[in-house]
Specification:
The protein is an alpha+beta fold. Helix content is about 55%, strand content about 20%. It has a five-stranded antiparallel sheet with strand order 4-3-2-1-5. The longest helix is centred in the first third of the chain and has 32 residues.
Length: about 260
């Protein structure tokens, strides 16, 4: 077949289906815009209604968007006389081929869904997942976005997180600040506990929280003691610094912790 004949057939097809092409382009554009608007609305709606568990909102928004785009493609193909059953059969075969080629991507999608429903962490939690450390910003369909303590952006595949041992530092409302220190073996333990308990009482603890002060090890000339004080999880880093600074001051002021004569 000559090039001119091929061009003539193509031009004739375009002219004959010009109206369908225009409608298809309009439907594609409308579907693209509507999918973004509806996805944004669903994400915002769920985030507002589920303030304490907003992790599912971004994932639900992405699922809704891709569903609308899928329906849009079906409608566009229907404009050219393609039967729905044929479309689904072709998409099924294509989907199987894509699934085999993109096993890692599909694993990320499945892992993202499992992370949302098992909820080992929520948006805003500070986690450590086998070296993936940071504050969770958003759990997406393929990957999770985090922000490190240094303010860096971290993009982690969902499959990595779902297979990791996850330590969630924000799940519990309080955490323990633990500091060990040495005092002379001759020190008065009652006085040590009284002074250290006062130093460990910070504004980062709830009113009813009391520090525990224990004798850890007994040496020939010194004793190692440990103070453990519960603080709010979100304030753990500043609380740890304050407790250590105050404990340093107490130890320097009472170098021998001898019993005070009355």
């Amino acid at each position: 077949m000559q090039e001119a004949e091929i061009f003539g057939i193509s031009a004739a097809w375009v002219i004959a289906n010009a109206w369908s092409l225009v409608i298809a382009l309009l439907v594609l554009a409308a579907g693209w815009v509507i999918s973004k608007i509806v996805s944004r609305y669903v994400t915002g709606f769920l985030a507002a209604r589920m303030k304490h568990n907003a992790t599912i909102a971004p994932l639900a928004g992405q699922v809704v968007r891709y569903a609308i785009l899928f329906v849009t493609v079906i409608v566009v193909l229907g404009q050219f006389g393609v039967q729905t059953a044929s479309i689904l059969a072709v998409l099924g075969a294509a989907g199987l081929a894509i699934a085999l080629a993109l096993q890692g991507t599909l694993a990320n999608i499945a892992a993202g869904i499992m992370l949302v429903f098992l909820r080992p962490f929520n948006s805003g939690d500070y986690i450590d997942a086998d070296g993936i450390v940071g504050t969770v910003v958003e759990v997406g369909l393929f990957a999770t976005q985090l922000r490190t303590i240094d303010g860096l952006y971290l993009f982690a595949p969902n499959s990595k997180l779902s297979n990791a041992k996850i330590i969630n530092y924000s799940r519990e409302t309080s955490r323990i600040v633990e500091v060990k220190f040495n005092v002379p073996r001759s020190a008065d333990l009652d006085r040590v506990r009284a002074e250290v308990a006062q130093a460990a009482a910070t504004e980062y603890s709830d009113g009813a929280a009391k520090p525990d002060i224990w004798l850890d090890t007994l040496g020939d000339s010194t004793m190692t003691m440990v103070v453990r004080v519960p603080v709010r999880s979100r304030d753990w880093y500043p609380a740890r610094s304050v407790v250590q600074e105050r404990l340093k001051t107490v130890l320097e002021r009472n170098s021998n912790f001898a019993e005070v004569a009355t």
